[in-house]
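Interim report to the steering committee. The following record documents the input for Sortase (266 residues).
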Amino acid sequence: MKTFLRAFWPACLFVVVIAVLAGTGYIAVTTNISTAGDWRTHAQANAQRPAGHPAKIRDTTVQALATAKRQAIATQRQHGIGLLRVPSQHIELTIFGTMTNTTLSLGVARYFPSRTMGDGNNVYAAHNLAAANLLLTRTAHLQHGAAITQTDFVHTYHYRVVYNRVVKATEVAVLKQTKEDRLTLIRCEGDVGTNFRRVIIARKTAVTPYVATPAAPHRLTQRLAPLVPVLLTPWFNLAVLLCFSGLLYLGSRRYRQLQEEHHENL
């Protein structure tokens, strides 16, 4: 065993390093982005900016999430309009004023840009990646009466959950404008291509002045997120395979050499 480790320790170390990088990268991609930063000072201006033409929305993938993470800070500065919090599920997400595949991958996106925050039916959507604990995934556990807040950094709007169900994608009545002030959260439910949506509706209960609270800082894993698209490229995978093969070849030569030395010493 000692001879094997002496010969193949570079290959073993290489495997450990790649495994740590892959694990850290996956955690980075499947962790919500930090809501800290100076983007909050642009929120009021972003909310008034025209949304432009709707983007074609596609099902998300790990690679798509990783690509979005590379643009997180810039996207928050350009499109961030507020903050959504679901305290019971430890959810804190950026609210984006424009709906694109990138904004749906980074937080919740405003479905109807013409609707003012806090008035009528504010509808927000987010991507959902099966088996990944991010964005609105944990809303499946929301109970009736659970608190939700949204803020534009001037006022904080408080809501209580009154509806949490899975519906067919064709059931669009929940998107309609209402006289009642409410918050509607939507995400896909199921695997890629699913025709089902989870819908959470919360009724507004109060409006209070915004009180600044410290946001979670950018973690090390989030700082590594921009590296993930590189890890997923065919060229990187080929380079890893070639390096590992080379280390195995050198290790096997070293192993034979050590065995020969051992036999000579007997």
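Residues 1-22+225-264 form one domain. The committee is asked to note this result when reviewing the revised timeline.
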